[in-house]
Amino acid sequence: MKQILTFFTLLSIVFLFMGSPVQGSQQNIIDISGTISESNQLFDLENIKPGDWADRELIISNKRNNDITYDIEIAYEDGSKMFYDALFLEIKSAGNQLYYDKLANFTTIKDLTLAANEEEILEMQLTFPPESGNEFQGLTTKATITIISQDDIDEESSTFTISTDSQSMDNDSFLPATATFAFNFLIIGLALLLVGSIIYLIIKKKKIA
Prior knowledge:
This protein is an alpha+beta fold. The chain has 3 helices and 10 strands; from the N terminus they run αββββαββββββα. Strand 9 and strand 10 form a beta hairpin. The longest helix is centred in the last third of the chain and has 31 residues.
């Protein structure tokens, strides 16, 4: 009888442990908010033209009672690689410039530190350079930006989309051929200068005579 009782006691302990799994960390490392659409779009820009830009922000909140670090990664995903390579990105935090260059030159920003229960605002500006020409008309491109956070226990990542399309030729608004205009103005200016110089010399010659 004693053996049967011991057996059932041990069996109960086994079931107790099976029903109570070891609890890991249930709380997210960070919470991310800001100018993000419901479909996780950070930038969703349509019909942009050279010289246009857009500002966005991500608010990174540390939900842990300990310091954490996070990385920022950006990767080309789909569409025109030429358009992607031309776009310019600036990232700032608390007035400090973390990145300021073409999107194509972006490499991972690693080990950004965030203190326990603190938050940080990442200010981002995406620019379509004003010197871009007609070859970008109607192109689209898509990329992803990933925030990877970690502490001594866990690691997690959150991904957002960057989507842009340039103004199409169908809008009857061709991009200005600025180089051609500048060259034409230069020729006209030189011609006027030459004509003016000739007239000046003729008048001067007549006065001397």
